[in-house]
Structures are given as structure tokens and as C-alpha cells.
Amino acid sequence: PQKKLRLPKIRRHKRSPLLFWLGLLIVLFFPLVSTFGLMATGFLTLTQSVKAAEQGDFSSSRSSFSFAQGLFNAADVTATGILIFPILAKTQMAQPEQAIETGQQVSDTGKELVESAQTLQSINAGKSDDPKHDFLQALATGKNALLTLQKLSAEEKLPPAVQVKLLALRDSMSIVENTSDSLPVLLGFEGKKKYLILFQNNM
Fold first, then answer.
1. Which residues contact 51 (CB under 8 A, 6 or more apart)?
2. CA 164 to each of CA 41, 47, 158, 160, 176: distance values in angstroms, whole numbers, following the listed order
3. Which of 2, 64, 95, 155 is the most exposed place for a label (fewest CB within 10 A)?
4. Distance CA 76, CA 72 (A)
5. Is the distance from CB of 108 to CB of 62 less than 8 angstroms?
6. Count of CB atoms within 10 A of residue 177's CB?
7. How confident is the model at residue 63 (pLDDT cuts 50, 70, 90)?
8. Which residues 6+ apart lie within 8 Å of 149 measured at CB?
9. Taking phi first (over 0 means left), then psi (-120 to 50 degrees means alpha), and beta for anything else, what does residue 197 get?
10. Do residues 127 and 95 make contact, with C-beta atoms less than 8 angstroms apart?
11. Is the pLDDT of residue 93 over 60?
12. d(CA 158, CA 52)
């Protein structure tokens, strides 16, 4: 009689429910944690950018604004992967989305202002090939950037640190806005100018 061959039994490993729930938690919460982490780092970087600009370090300030812009763009991408908010509370999604959008606008606007300041710095140092053109371009860019910041300020969307600095510059901004059309002539871009300055006291 032929002997029957016994095949080894294949053991099937049962999938642990712990791994399933762990994977589910990662899918749900990792985008959430990443988004808020990127947002917090972005707003912190914005504060550092403003401080660098105040110290006259426009190169570092510009780099920081660009870095902050990248952080908010990354947060915008990770926010699309947040599944738990639409499931639990759709209305709560508006808050992080609004904060990300504000961060993107402030980063972009701050970068434009710093670039305008760098252009004016180059003109003052005599490093510009076309001072008048560069001045008008820097003035227009800076003016549009300030208008954007004023709009965000009126909507109470600015970070507190940026809001304080904007209020401190309100008088200077008003002077620039009122004299922007006359500045090229006053600064001698149309030719050399001579001015007589008189001071009067109360005597």
C-alpha cells in the first residue's frame, strides 16, 4: 500500500487589531499634528523675520520670510489630509485654513517689503544701474504690500507681533502714501535740486 504524504500545515498569522488601530490613528492624527506644527513654526519664523528687518539685516529677513512661506505652503498641503475634522466637526476646518491663508499672505507681503527695502538700499549705495526705475518699482511694490497689510489689519487677521509693528509705522506709511508721486522729483531723479530749509522758533 502507498503511504500518504502529509503536507505541513500552513499557519496563518492572525492580524493584530492593535496594528490596525495604530495605523488608523496615524492616518487620522499625523496630518493634524503636522499641520499645526508647521503653522506654529511658520508664525514663529514670521516674528524672527520682523526682528531681522528691524535690525537692518534684510538678507536674513528675506530668507526667513521665504522659509515661513514654505512652511505655510506645506501646512496647506498637509491640511488636505486631515480626515478627522470633516468627520467630527466640519465648521472647525475653517480656523486652520484661515490661519494658513493669513500666514501665506503675511509671508509674501513681508518678503515684498524687504525686497523693496533692499532695492532702496542699493540705490542709496550707488549700486543701481537705473536708480529712477528701480526706485519707482520698489515704491510701487512697497505701497501695494502696505495696502495688503492694512487690509489684513482691518480684518484683524495679522499676528500680534506684526500688528504692533504696523501700528508703530502708521505715521511713516501715511507720509509715504501722500508723497509717493512727488518723491522722484523731490529726490532729484529728474535732475539736481537745491532746497532752502528754514527753522522758526517761538521767539
1. none
2. 20, 11, 9, 6, 19
3. 2
4. 6
5. no
6. 13
7. very high
8. 106, 109, 158, 162, 166
9. beta
10. no
11. no
12. 18
Residue 189 in contact with residue 132, Cβ under 8 Å? yes
Cα separation, 136 vs 50, whole angstroms = 24
Amino acid at 133: H
- 195: its cell numbers: 532746497
pLDDT above 70 (res 48): yes
- 131-190: per-residue pLDDT in tens? 888 888 888 888 888 888 888 888 888 777 777 776 666 666 666 667 767 777 777 777
With beta carbons less than 8 A apart as the criterion, state whether 33 and 147 touch. Answer: no
Task: With beta carbons less than 8 A apart as the criterion, state whether 113 and 57 touch.
Answer: no
Give Cα 141 to chain centroid, integer Å: 16
**Cell 501722500, residue?**
178
35 is written with which cell numbers? 499641520
CA 30 from chain centre, in angstroms, equals: 23
Amino acid at 14: K
